[in-house]
Amino acid sequence: MDKSGIFVGATIGSITAVIIFSILFVLPTEPDETTIQMQNQIDEINNTILAKSKTLSLIEIFEKSEPGVVRVNIQRNQTENDTGGVGSGFVFDKKGHIITNAHVIDDATKTIVTFLDGRSYNAEIIGMDESTDIGVIKVNTDLKLLHPLSLGDSSNLKVGETITAIGNPFGLSGSMTSGIISQMGRLLPSNSGFSIPDVIQTDAAINPGNSGGPLLNMRGEIVGINTAIQSTTGEFTGVGFAIPSQTVAKIVPTLIKEGEYKHPWIGISGKDIDPDTANILGLKDTLGFLIITVVEDSPAFDAGLIGSNETIKVEGREYLIGGDIITTVDGIDVRKIDDILIHLQRVKTVGDEMVLEILRENRTTSVTIILQERPN
Known about the structure:
Blueprint: H1 2-26, H2 33-53, H3 58-65, E1 69-75, E2 85-91, E3 97-100, H4 102-105, E4 110-114, E5 120-122, E6 124-129, E7 134-138, E8 162-167, E9 175-188, E10 196-202, E11 214-216, E12 222-229, E13 240-244, H5 245-258, E14 264-265, E15 268-272, H6 275-281, E16 289-294, H7 299-302, E17 310-314, E18 317-321, E19 325-329, E20 332-333, H8 337-347, E21 353-360, E22 363-370, E23 372-373
Antiparallel strand pairs: 1-2, 1-4, 2-3, 3-7, 4-5, 6-7, 8-9, 8-11, 9-10, 10-13, 11-12, 12-13, 14-23, 15-16, 16-19, 17-18, 19-20, 19-21, 21-22
Protein backbone atom coordinates (compact mmCIF):
# COMPACT_ATOMS: atom_id res chain seq x y z
CA MET A 1 0.00 0.00 0.00
CA ASP A 2 2.69 2.41 1.00
CA LYS A 3 4.76 1.77 -2.07
CA SER A 4 1.69 1.86 -4.21
CA GLY A 5 0.52 5.03 -2.54
CA ILE A 6 3.90 6.67 -2.86
CA PHE A 7 4.09 5.67 -6.53
CA VAL A 8 0.63 6.91 -7.30
CA GLY A 9 1.25 10.11 -5.44
CA ALA A 10 4.47 10.72 -7.25
CA THR A 11 2.78 10.05 -10.57
CA ILE A 12 -0.10 12.37 -9.84
CA GLY A 13 2.28 15.05 -8.68
CA SER A 14 4.35 14.72 -11.85
CA ILE A 15 1.29 14.94 -14.09
CA THR A 16 0.09 18.00 -12.20
CA ALA A 17 3.45 19.63 -12.65
CA VAL A 18 3.44 18.91 -16.37
CA ILE A 19 -0.09 20.32 -16.77
CA ILE A 20 0.80 23.44 -14.84
CA PHE A 21 3.98 23.86 -16.93
CA SER A 22 2.04 23.40 -20.17
CA ILE A 23 -0.55 25.98 -19.12
CA LEU A 24 2.17 28.44 -18.21
CA PHE A 25 3.96 27.75 -21.51
CA VAL A 26 0.93 28.51 -23.74
CA LEU A 27 -0.42 31.48 -21.83
CA PRO A 28 -0.68 34.38 -24.37
CA THR A 29 1.84 37.14 -24.14
CA GLU A 30 1.45 40.75 -25.30
CA PRO A 31 1.92 40.69 -29.14
CA ASP A 32 4.88 42.67 -30.43
CA GLU A 33 4.66 45.30 -33.17
CA THR A 34 5.75 42.90 -35.94
CA THR A 35 3.01 40.42 -35.02
CA ILE A 36 0.39 43.17 -35.04
CA GLN A 37 1.53 44.38 -38.47
CA MET A 38 1.45 40.85 -39.87
CA GLN A 39 -2.04 40.29 -38.50
CA ASN A 40 -3.23 43.60 -39.98
CA GLN A 41 -1.84 42.60 -43.40
CA ILE A 42 -3.57 39.21 -43.19
CA ASP A 43 -6.85 40.88 -42.23
CA GLU A 44 -6.51 43.33 -45.14
CA ILE A 45 -5.84 40.51 -47.63
CA ASN A 46 -8.78 38.51 -46.30
CA ASN A 47 -11.08 41.53 -46.54
CA THR A 48 -9.94 42.19 -50.12
CA ILE A 49 -10.52 38.57 -51.13
CA LEU A 50 -13.94 38.63 -49.46
CA ALA A 51 -14.90 41.87 -51.21
CA LYS A 52 -13.78 40.58 -54.61
CA SER A 53 -15.55 37.27 -54.21
CA LYS A 54 -18.85 38.75 -53.04
CA THR A 55 -21.58 38.46 -55.62
CA LEU A 56 -24.29 41.09 -55.56
CA SER A 57 -27.88 40.87 -56.68
CA LEU A 58 -28.99 42.95 -59.67
CA ILE A 59 -30.88 45.21 -57.26
CA GLU A 60 -27.73 45.77 -55.18
CA ILE A 61 -25.64 46.45 -58.30
CA PHE A 62 -28.13 49.02 -59.57
CA GLU A 63 -28.40 50.81 -56.21
CA LYS A 64 -24.60 50.83 -55.88
CA SER A 65 -23.87 51.96 -59.45
CA GLU A 66 -26.72 54.26 -60.49
CA PRO A 67 -25.32 57.37 -58.73
CA GLY A 68 -22.18 57.05 -60.86
CA VAL A 69 -23.98 56.67 -64.20
CA VAL A 70 -24.85 59.84 -66.12
CA ARG A 71 -26.79 60.92 -69.18
CA VAL A 72 -24.80 62.73 -71.89
CA ASN A 73 -26.66 65.10 -74.22
CA ILE A 74 -24.84 66.78 -77.06
CA GLN A 75 -25.51 69.44 -79.67
CA ARG A 76 -23.67 69.43 -82.97
CA ASN A 77 -24.70 72.86 -84.23
CA GLN A 78 -26.09 76.00 -82.70
CA THR A 79 -29.47 76.21 -84.39
CA GLU A 80 -32.77 76.02 -82.53
CA ASN A 81 -33.77 72.92 -84.49
CA ASP A 82 -30.73 70.94 -83.35
CA THR A 83 -32.13 68.02 -81.39
CA GLY A 84 -28.60 66.73 -80.76
CA GLY A 85 -28.01 63.24 -79.50
CA VAL A 86 -28.02 61.30 -76.26
CA GLY A 87 -25.61 58.80 -74.81
CA SER A 88 -24.41 57.54 -71.47
CA GLY A 89 -21.32 57.81 -69.32
CA PHE A 90 -19.96 57.10 -65.87
CA VAL A 91 -17.97 58.99 -63.26
CA PHE A 92 -14.27 58.07 -63.37
CA ASP A 93 -12.84 60.10 -60.49
CA LYS A 94 -13.50 62.80 -57.92
CA LYS A 95 -12.00 65.43 -60.22
CA GLY A 96 -15.12 65.34 -62.37
CA HIS A 97 -13.80 63.22 -65.24
CA ILE A 98 -16.52 61.21 -66.96
CA ILE A 99 -15.97 58.37 -69.42
CA THR A 100 -18.15 57.92 -72.49
CA ASN A 101 -17.70 56.90 -76.13
CA ALA A 102 -15.76 59.05 -78.56
CA HIS A 103 -18.55 58.72 -81.11
CA VAL A 104 -21.04 60.16 -78.58
CA ILE A 105 -19.17 63.45 -78.23
CA ASP A 106 -17.48 63.65 -81.63
CA ASP A 107 -18.09 67.05 -83.31
CA ALA A 108 -20.16 68.22 -80.33
CA THR A 109 -20.46 71.98 -79.97
CA LYS A 110 -22.08 71.58 -76.56
CA THR A 111 -22.08 68.70 -74.09
CA ILE A 112 -24.43 68.46 -71.10
CA VAL A 113 -24.17 65.90 -68.31
CA THR A 114 -27.19 65.03 -66.16
CA PHE A 115 -26.77 63.27 -62.82
CA LEU A 116 -29.09 60.97 -60.89
CA ASP A 117 -30.71 63.82 -58.97
CA GLY A 118 -31.65 65.59 -62.22
CA ARG A 119 -29.07 68.37 -62.01
CA SER A 120 -27.31 69.15 -65.30
CA TYR A 121 -23.91 70.68 -66.01
CA ASN A 122 -22.05 71.80 -69.09
CA ALA A 123 -19.08 69.51 -69.74
CA GLU A 124 -15.69 70.15 -71.30
CA ILE A 125 -14.28 67.63 -73.76
CA ILE A 126 -10.89 66.56 -72.40
CA GLY A 127 -9.81 63.93 -74.88
CA MET A 128 -10.93 61.37 -77.43
CA ASP A 129 -9.50 58.25 -79.01
CA GLU A 130 -11.45 57.10 -82.06
CA SER A 131 -9.30 53.98 -82.34
CA THR A 132 -10.83 52.60 -79.12
CA ASP A 133 -14.01 54.74 -79.15
CA ILE A 134 -13.19 56.20 -75.73
CA GLY A 135 -13.96 59.80 -74.80
CA VAL A 136 -13.31 61.79 -71.63
CA ILE A 137 -15.32 64.83 -70.57
CA LYS A 138 -15.20 66.85 -67.35
CA VAL A 139 -17.71 68.70 -65.21
CA ASN A 140 -17.08 71.16 -62.40
CA THR A 141 -19.52 70.31 -59.66
CA ASP A 142 -19.94 69.53 -55.98
CA LEU A 143 -17.75 66.60 -54.91
CA LYS A 144 -20.73 65.10 -53.10
CA LEU A 145 -22.39 64.58 -56.46
CA LEU A 146 -19.46 62.58 -57.85
CA HIS A 147 -19.64 58.82 -57.23
CA PRO A 148 -16.77 57.17 -59.16
CA LEU A 149 -17.41 53.58 -60.21
CA SER A 150 -14.71 50.95 -59.66
CA LEU A 151 -12.90 49.42 -62.61
CA GLY A 152 -12.74 45.63 -62.67
CA ASP A 153 -10.35 43.40 -64.61
CA SER A 154 -11.87 42.42 -67.94
CA SER A 155 -9.13 39.84 -68.51
CA ASN A 156 -10.80 37.65 -65.88
CA LEU A 157 -14.13 37.50 -67.71
CA LYS A 158 -15.41 34.12 -68.86
CA VAL A 159 -17.87 33.28 -71.62
CA GLY A 160 -21.22 32.61 -69.95
CA GLU A 161 -20.53 34.94 -67.01
CA THR A 162 -23.48 37.10 -65.98
CA ILE A 163 -23.12 40.85 -66.54
CA THR A 164 -25.38 43.89 -66.54
CA ALA A 165 -25.54 47.21 -68.40
CA ILE A 166 -26.82 50.59 -67.20
CA GLY A 167 -27.51 53.53 -69.48
CA ASN A 168 -30.06 55.67 -71.28
CA PRO A 169 -31.48 53.66 -74.21
CA PHE A 170 -33.65 55.88 -76.42
CA GLY A 171 -33.21 58.58 -73.75
CA LEU A 172 -34.83 56.47 -71.01
CA SER A 173 -32.55 57.46 -68.14
CA GLY A 174 -31.17 54.95 -65.68
CA SER A 175 -32.27 51.81 -67.51
CA MET A 176 -30.74 48.46 -66.55
CA THR A 177 -30.47 45.28 -68.63
CA SER A 178 -28.67 42.02 -67.96
CA GLY A 179 -27.26 39.08 -69.87
CA ILE A 180 -24.06 37.11 -70.26
CA ILE A 181 -20.62 37.42 -71.81
CA SER A 182 -21.14 35.90 -75.25
CA GLN A 183 -17.51 35.96 -76.36
CA MET A 184 -14.21 37.79 -75.86
CA GLY A 185 -11.56 39.18 -78.20
CA ARG A 186 -13.79 40.41 -81.03
CA LEU A 187 -12.56 42.87 -83.68
CA LEU A 188 -14.79 45.91 -84.18
CA PRO A 189 -14.46 48.49 -87.00
CA SER A 190 -13.88 52.07 -85.87
CA ASN A 191 -14.12 55.53 -87.40
CA SER A 192 -10.32 55.72 -87.42
CA GLY A 193 -10.10 53.10 -90.16
CA PHE A 194 -8.38 50.64 -87.83
CA SER A 195 -10.27 47.85 -86.05
CA ILE A 196 -10.74 47.95 -82.28
CA PRO A 197 -9.26 44.71 -80.88
CA ASP A 198 -10.10 42.71 -77.76
CA VAL A 199 -13.79 43.75 -77.70
CA ILE A 200 -16.36 42.07 -75.43
CA GLN A 201 -19.48 40.56 -77.00
CA THR A 202 -22.62 40.40 -74.86
CA ASP A 203 -26.30 39.57 -75.24
CA ALA A 204 -27.35 42.18 -72.66
CA ALA A 205 -29.76 44.55 -74.41
CA ILE A 206 -27.84 47.57 -75.72
CA ASN A 207 -29.69 50.18 -77.79
CA PRO A 208 -29.07 53.72 -79.08
CA GLY A 209 -28.46 55.86 -76.01
CA ASN A 210 -26.61 53.09 -74.14
CA SER A 211 -23.35 54.09 -75.81
CA GLY A 212 -20.74 55.11 -73.26
CA GLY A 213 -22.50 53.47 -70.32
CA PRO A 214 -20.92 50.84 -68.09
CA LEU A 215 -20.98 47.08 -68.46
CA LEU A 216 -20.66 45.64 -64.95
CA ASN A 217 -19.84 42.25 -63.46
CA MET A 218 -21.78 40.78 -60.57
CA ARG A 219 -19.54 42.51 -58.03
CA GLY A 220 -20.61 45.88 -59.40
CA GLU A 221 -17.24 46.56 -61.08
CA ILE A 222 -16.96 48.08 -64.55
CA VAL A 223 -15.63 45.52 -67.02
CA GLY A 224 -16.46 47.42 -70.20
CA ILE A 225 -17.92 50.47 -71.95
CA ASN A 226 -20.99 49.70 -74.06
CA THR A 227 -20.19 50.94 -77.53
CA ALA A 228 -22.01 49.26 -80.42
CA ILE A 229 -24.54 46.71 -81.61
CA GLN A 230 -24.72 44.46 -84.65
CA SER A 231 -28.07 45.06 -86.25
CA THR A 232 -29.76 45.55 -89.60
CA THR A 233 -32.52 47.67 -88.04
CA GLY A 234 -30.49 49.95 -85.78
CA GLU A 235 -32.01 48.30 -82.71
CA PHE A 236 -30.77 45.50 -80.46
CA THR A 237 -30.86 42.01 -81.97
CA GLY A 238 -28.93 40.03 -79.37
CA VAL A 239 -25.37 41.06 -80.22
CA GLY A 240 -23.79 44.00 -78.39
CA PHE A 241 -20.18 45.08 -77.95
CA ALA A 242 -18.21 46.76 -75.16
CA ILE A 243 -14.67 48.15 -74.90
CA PRO A 244 -12.91 46.14 -72.13
CA SER A 245 -11.92 47.80 -68.86
CA GLN A 246 -8.30 46.78 -69.50
CA THR A 247 -8.31 49.15 -72.46
CA VAL A 248 -10.01 51.87 -70.40
CA ALA A 249 -7.36 51.60 -67.68
CA LYS A 250 -4.58 51.93 -70.27
CA ILE A 251 -6.01 54.70 -72.46
CA VAL A 252 -7.94 57.04 -70.13
CA PRO A 253 -5.06 58.34 -67.95
CA THR A 254 -3.23 59.43 -71.11
CA LEU A 255 -6.37 61.06 -72.54
CA ILE A 256 -6.79 63.02 -69.31
CA LYS A 257 -3.18 64.13 -69.35
CA GLU A 258 -2.57 64.69 -73.08
CA GLY A 259 -5.98 64.69 -74.77
CA GLU A 260 -4.99 61.92 -77.18
CA TYR A 261 -3.43 58.47 -77.22
CA LYS A 262 -0.68 57.35 -79.60
CA HIS A 263 -1.16 53.77 -80.74
CA PRO A 264 1.74 51.55 -81.78
CA TRP A 265 1.68 49.77 -85.10
CA ILE A 266 3.65 47.28 -87.17
CA GLY A 267 2.81 48.34 -90.73
CA ILE A 268 1.63 45.14 -92.39
CA SER A 269 -1.47 43.73 -94.01
CA GLY A 270 -2.20 40.15 -94.90
CA LYS A 271 -4.45 37.19 -94.21
CA ASP A 272 -4.92 34.43 -91.66
CA ILE A 273 -3.74 31.01 -92.77
CA ASP A 274 -6.77 29.04 -94.00
CA PRO A 275 -6.92 25.38 -95.07
CA ASP A 276 -6.32 26.16 -98.77
CA THR A 277 -3.32 28.39 -98.05
CA ALA A 278 -1.89 25.86 -95.60
CA ASN A 279 -2.20 23.14 -98.25
CA ILE A 280 -0.53 25.27 -100.92
CA LEU A 281 2.36 26.19 -98.62
CA GLY A 282 2.71 22.68 -97.20
CA LEU A 283 1.90 23.74 -93.63
CA LYS A 284 0.75 21.22 -91.03
CA ASP A 285 -1.72 23.57 -89.30
CA THR A 286 -3.96 26.51 -90.18
CA LEU A 287 -2.12 28.75 -87.73
CA GLY A 288 -0.30 32.03 -88.29
CA PHE A 289 -0.65 35.25 -90.27
CA LEU A 290 0.67 35.56 -93.81
CA ILE A 291 2.15 38.99 -94.60
CA ILE A 292 0.99 40.20 -98.01
CA THR A 293 1.95 43.89 -97.88
CA VAL A 294 4.63 45.73 -95.89
CA VAL A 295 4.11 49.50 -95.63
CA GLU A 296 7.17 51.49 -96.66
CA ASP A 297 9.09 53.14 -93.78
CA SER A 298 7.00 51.25 -91.22
CA PRO A 299 8.46 49.25 -88.28
CA ALA A 300 7.95 46.06 -90.31
CA PHE A 301 9.78 47.61 -93.29
CA ASP A 302 12.69 48.73 -91.10
CA ALA A 303 12.94 45.25 -89.57
CA GLY A 304 13.15 43.63 -93.00
CA LEU A 305 9.86 41.75 -93.00
CA ILE A 306 8.83 40.47 -96.43
CA GLY A 307 5.41 40.59 -98.07
CA SER A 308 4.01 38.24 -100.71
CA ASN A 309 5.91 38.34 -103.98
CA GLU A 310 4.36 35.51 -105.96
CA THR A 311 0.90 34.60 -107.21
CA ILE A 312 -0.21 31.07 -108.00
CA LYS A 313 -3.53 29.83 -109.34
CA VAL A 314 -5.25 26.79 -107.86
CA GLU A 315 -8.60 25.57 -109.21
CA GLY A 316 -9.14 28.91 -110.90
CA ARG A 317 -8.42 30.96 -107.80
CA GLU A 318 -5.35 33.14 -107.31
CA TYR A 319 -3.31 32.99 -104.10
CA LEU A 320 -0.60 35.41 -102.99
CA ILE A 321 2.32 33.54 -101.43
CA GLY A 322 5.99 34.08 -100.64
CA GLY A 323 5.55 36.43 -97.69
CA ASP A 324 6.70 35.88 -94.12
CA ILE A 325 4.30 33.99 -91.86
CA ILE A 326 4.11 35.30 -88.29
CA THR A 327 3.79 32.35 -85.89
CA THR A 328 4.45 33.95 -82.49
CA VAL A 329 4.64 37.45 -81.01
CA ASP A 330 6.74 37.88 -77.86
CA GLY A 331 6.44 34.14 -77.36
CA ILE A 332 2.62 34.09 -77.73
CA ASP A 333 1.21 31.80 -80.42
CA VAL A 334 -0.45 33.58 -83.32
CA ARG A 335 -3.55 31.80 -84.63
CA LYS A 336 -4.78 34.83 -86.57
CA ILE A 337 -4.34 38.61 -86.81
CA ASP A 338 -6.55 39.10 -83.73
CA ASP A 339 -3.80 37.69 -81.50
CA ILE A 340 -1.29 40.26 -82.78
CA LEU A 341 -3.67 43.20 -82.42
CA ILE A 342 -4.82 42.16 -78.94
CA HIS A 343 -1.20 41.87 -77.78
CA LEU A 344 -0.44 45.33 -79.17
CA GLN A 345 -3.50 46.79 -77.45
CA ARG A 346 -2.96 45.18 -74.06
CA VAL A 347 0.74 45.52 -73.36
CA LYS A 348 2.57 47.53 -76.01
CA THR A 349 3.23 51.26 -76.42
CA VAL A 350 5.10 53.39 -78.93
CA GLY A 351 8.85 52.76 -78.70
CA ASP A 352 8.56 49.21 -77.33
CA GLU A 353 10.36 46.26 -78.87
CA MET A 354 8.37 43.30 -80.13
CA VAL A 355 9.86 39.96 -81.10
CA LEU A 356 8.20 38.11 -83.97
CA GLU A 357 8.88 34.50 -84.81
CA ILE A 358 8.37 34.06 -88.54
CA LEU A 359 8.41 31.27 -91.06
CA ARG A 360 10.37 32.26 -94.15
CA GLU A 361 11.17 29.80 -96.95
CA ASN A 362 10.33 26.90 -94.60
CA ARG A 363 12.82 28.14 -91.99
CA THR A 364 11.93 29.66 -88.64
CA THR A 365 13.67 32.84 -87.54
CA SER A 366 13.15 35.70 -85.06
CA VAL A 367 12.82 39.36 -85.97
CA THR A 368 12.80 42.26 -83.50
CA ILE A 369 10.84 45.38 -84.46
CA ILE A 370 10.65 48.77 -82.77
CA LEU A 371 7.05 49.95 -82.61
CA GLN A 372 6.28 53.42 -83.99
CA GLU A 373 3.28 55.69 -83.71
CA ARG A 374 0.41 54.63 -85.94
CA PRO A 375 -0.30 57.20 -88.67
CA ASN A 376 -3.72 58.79 -89.05
